[in-house]
Amino acid sequence: MSGIVETTGTQTPRRQPDREATTRLPDVHAEPDGSARHTLLGAALEVFTERGYAEAGLTEIAARSGLLVGSLFQHYGGKRGLYLALWEEFREEQERRTAATLAAERERGVDDPVDLFVAGARAYLEGAWDNRRLAMLLVEDDGPAGFDALRRQWDRAWVRRNARLLEVDEKRRVGRVRVRVLTTVIGGAARELGDCEDEGEAREIVDAVCGILVHLSALPG
Fold first, then answer.
1. Nearest Cα to Cα of residue 141 among 155, 151, 156, 130
2. Which residues form the signal peptide (predicted)?
């Protein structure tokens, strides 16, 4: 679930899944207003974190949010829809963060692919720390049916985006492997950040990982 979002403009791009990302999010009847959405997803995150997805109950989520179970079904179609909405929220925030960082770096004249990639990786990791409860939930194996396939699809899309950002020739196997290794390093570091005890330790990890990425990104291929 890791990767740097490539963008050429100053606005954050909307989600553009690659052709293979065909697994779809559930249709909903209506999106709740911002306050209700925040409350409902916050309650869902609490219950999923405490109970795990399989053991989480809709009644408890509704009770904590102060909304009726029927309202939960109306907006998200059930527990699976809530979980996927949390995933979408995390991904969108990470995309906004990394896209804004890349735009700012380009604005100040940075054009080296490795420098841009590492700046985006830092932004992604800082976002994983800031949203660590949600990030840790989404890497667990206890998710709804079909989520692993959806996550793998987007992982592959992120690898391709990173390859474009690094200007790697994707036709060469060595280039593809190199980018996949880099993306895997970011994902593994994001998981470790979830177990950090304080911000100082988290910053130390982010700095160390960015140093590793600089070294690995500089290799030919």
1. 151
2. none
For residue 172, the SS3 value is: coil
- Top-level CATH class of 1-22+87-221? mainly alpha
Q: What is the pLDDT of residues 175-193, one digit of tens each?
A: 889 899 999 999 999 999 9
DSSP tally for the chain: helices H, then strands E: 9, 0
Model pLDDT, residue 74:
85
Looking at domain 27-76, its CATH architecture is Orthogonal Bundle (1.10)
Mean of pLDDT values over 97-104 = 96
Contact in structure between 145 and 80 (CB atoms under 8 Å): yes
E strand spans, 37-195: none
Cβ within 8 Å of residue 126, ≥6 positions away: 97, 206
In the chain, helix, strand, coil percent, each to 5? 65, 0, 35
Q: Please choose, from the candidates 126, 146, 144, 122, the residue with its C-alpha nearest in 3D space to the C-alpha of residue 135.
A: 126
Mean pLDDT value across residues 117-123: 97
Q: Decide if 75 contacts 32 (C-beta within 8 A).
A: yes
Q: What is the pTM of this model?
A: 0.80
In Å, what is the CA distance from 34 to each residue of 12, 68, 103, 179?
20, 17, 27, 37
pLDDT in tens, 67-90: 888 888 888 889 999 999 999 999
> By three-state DSSP, how is residue 8 classified?
coil
Q: How far apart are CA 76 and CA 81, in angstroms?
A: 5
